[in-house]
C-alpha cells in the first residue's frame, strides 16, 4: 500500500508540459485580474486623460472622481441602503428557513413530503414569473418605493435554497443529541435554539453568505420596486449614474471601484465561507 | 420528541408557518396569478379584460420574441461550450499542478462575487469607442478604432462577460469533484502506463460525468435568468439584436405598460426553462458511479 503511494507521488518533473499549463492558467488569471486593475487606474484620471491613454498608470492620484462619487452621488447612502436591505433579507431568510428546516428534518407528520416537494419545486420558479403580480400586491399594500417592498420578495426568493440546504444538514445530526435534551425537560424551542442551531452554524454561515451576496448583487427587484434616489441600493445607483453621467468615464470607473472594493475585501477575508456558500447548492443537488 | 400530540402539532405549524406564508404569498400565488394574467389585456393598474389566447397569438407573431429566443439558445450554446468547457480544462490543469493551486482558486472566483451590474458596466467601458480597453489595444497595435457593439456582434459581445463571469464557479465545482476521486484509481492507471492527457480523458472525465451534467444544467438555467448584464451593456440593442426574454418582459411591463403581454412572456420563460432542463436530462442520463 505504502509502496504504491510512493510510485503515485513520484515523477514530479518540471517539463515543458507543466510550463505550458502554468502559462495557460496565468493567462486566464490575467483576464480576471486585469480588467479590475484597468478600472482602478482609470478611476484616478479625468475623462480626457482616459481618452488619450487608458492603458497607462495615472501620473498623479486624482481623487476628484471619488469625491464626486461620494459627495454628489451619495455613494455612502447607497451602501447604507444595500446593507439595510441585504441585512434584513439574510436575517429573516435564515431565521424562518431554519425554523422550517428543523421541522422538515426532525419531525414525521402528514404532508411533510408535499411541503418538501413544494420547496424544491419553487427553486424552479424564476423571478420573472412572479414579479408582475408581486408588483401589484406591493402597490396595493403601498410598499412600492420602500425598502420593505424589496426585502419581502427577496426573503421569499432565498427561502427555497436556505431550507433545502439547512434541512439536508439537520438530517445528519444524530437523534441522540436532542433526545438527551428532551429527557432533561427541554421544550421544542429549547431543543431548536440550544441544541440544533449551534450544531448547524457552519451551514447557516453558508446560507447567510449566499443570501447576502445574492441580495447585494441583485438589480432586478430594486429596479422595479424602488423609485426615489435616496432609497437606491448601490447597484441601482450605479445604473442611475451611468444613464446620467454616461460619458464621465473617470467617475464611472470610480463608482465601479467603490462597489467592487468592499465585496472583494469581504471575499478575501471570508473566502472559504463564500466559495462554499455559492457552490453548496450545486454540490448538493 | 414525545409530549402530547396536540402541542406537537402546534409546534409543527408554528415553526413552518412563517416560511410557508412567504413562499405562498410571494412565489406560488404570484406564479399562478401570472399564468392567469397572461389571458388578460391589462395595463397593470385599471384596465383588465379577458382576451383568451390573444397574447399567445401575439407572442407567436412577435419578431423580437424570435430574436430573444434565438439569443437565449445562442448564449446557452456559448455557456455550455466555453463556460463549462473552459472550467473543465482549468480544473484538470489546476489539479495537475503542485504549486499555486490556492492562488488560482482565489483569483478565478473573483468575478463571481461582483454584481453583474458592476461587471456589465466594466465591460461597457472596455468596449467603449472613445476610451475602451479594446480600442486602446487596437491603437497600440496600429489598427483603427472600431465600434465593438454592432447589429451583428451584439449578442456575442454581451455573451463574453456572461460566460467569463461564471467560469470560476464551475471550475471550483469540477475541481472539488476531481479531488474526491480516490487516489488508488490513478495509481493502478499509472501502473498500466496511463498518464497525463489520456488519464484525464479516460479516467477523470468519465468519473465526474454527473458533476459536469449538473454544471451544464445550472449554466443553462442561469442563461434564462440573465438580465442585468444585457440591460447595462446594450439594453437589448441595437435594433433588439441582443434582446433577451427577461429584459423584453421588463420593457413590455414597465415601459409599454402591457402587463398582460409581459405575463405571457414570463410564461414562455418558464416553459422554455422546464423544456430545456427536461431535454438536457434526457440527453445526458445520469449514471450512478460507485468507486
From TrEMBL, chain B:
It comes from Vallitalea guaymasensis. Belongs to the binding-protein-dependent transport system permease family. It is found in: Cell membrane. GO terms for biological process: transmembrane transport. Residues 69-280 form the ABC transmembrane type-1 domain. It holds the Pfam family BPD_transp_1. CDD domains: TM_PBP2. It is a multi-pass membrane protein. The lineage of its organism: Bacteria, Bacillati, Bacillota, Clostridia, Lachnospirales. Its main location: membrane. Keywords: Cell membrane, Membrane, Transmembrane, Transmembrane helix, Transport. GO terms for cellular component: plasma membrane. This is Sugar ABC transporter permease. The keyword Methyltransferase does not apply. The chain crosses the membrane at residues 12-32, 75-94, 106-127, 162-181, 201-224, 259-280. Gene3D superfamilies: MetI-like. It comes from the Bacteria.
